[in-house]
Amino acid sequence: MVRDIVIYPDKRLKLISKEVNEFDSELHSLLEDMYDTMLSKKGVGLAAIQIGVTKRVLIINLPDENDDDALPIKSETLEIINPIFIKKEGSCKHQEGCLSIPGIYEDIERAEHIVLEYHNRHGEKKTIENNKFLAIAIQHEIDHLDGKVFIEKLSFMKRKKFEKEWKKRFK
Q1: Which of 1, 45, 152, 163 has the greatest number of C-beta atoms within 10 Å?
Q2: Per-residue pLDDT tens for 32-41?
Q3: pTM, 2 dp
Q4: End-to-end CA distance of the chain
Q5: Of 139, 142, 118, 137, which Cα lies nearest the Cα of 128?
Q6: d(CA 44, CA 78)
């Protein structure tokens, strides 16, 4: 089921998500809804808080590097529950956008290399190590779980400019 995306500056985006303790059918339904929602909005990732659910759950499905028009393959969706960074190192800049801040893209600095521990939908512990676009996407979505959005990483002047332009959109 496609759910509504929480749009900035909705205060729910500031909430810190709670750890998942039950790896049950309710969680599996949430993951399915998140996938349907992300797909309908042509997103790369989605945190549960972006559909108003304060659970430490995120999904990512990277586009096919060789085919921009290819639809995501559901079985390749990374379902990350209760993520914990084991290591973050290096630095890189990458242009980011966000389903909760549609139409805005900015270069954001993030760690270049990450090691992450998490649980899958069945509660099994997993580890992922990455230094590519996936590392950027994971960091972006975990920020959501911690009550942050990517524009908070902008310089003071860029942030002021963004806020001014964003307000104009809704007048």
Answers
A1: 45
A2: 999 999 999 9
A3: 0.95
A4: 31
A5: 118
A6: 11
31: tokens are 């993951």
Q: Tell whether the model's pLDDT for residue 91 goes beyond 80.
A: yes
CA distance 22 to 140: 24
Q: At which residue do the structure tokens 């108003």 appear? A: 52
The yes-or-no verdict on residue 42 having pLDDT over 70 is: yes
Rounded Cα distance, 141 and 14, in Å: 13
Q: pLDDT tens digits, residue range 64-80?
A: 776 666 777 888 899 99
Homologous superfamily assigned to 11-169: Peptide deformylase (3.90.45.10)
| Cα–Cα distance, 106 to 74 (Å, whole number) | 28
Q: Which of 19, 22, 141, 152 is catalytic?
A: 141
The token pair at 124 is 């099994």
Backbone phi, psi, residue 113, to 5°: -125, 135
Ranges of each domain in the chain: 11-169
In the numeric block, which tokens belong to residue 8?
């900035």
Q: Which residues pair with 126 in a beta bridge?
A: 118
Structure tokens at 126: 């997993």
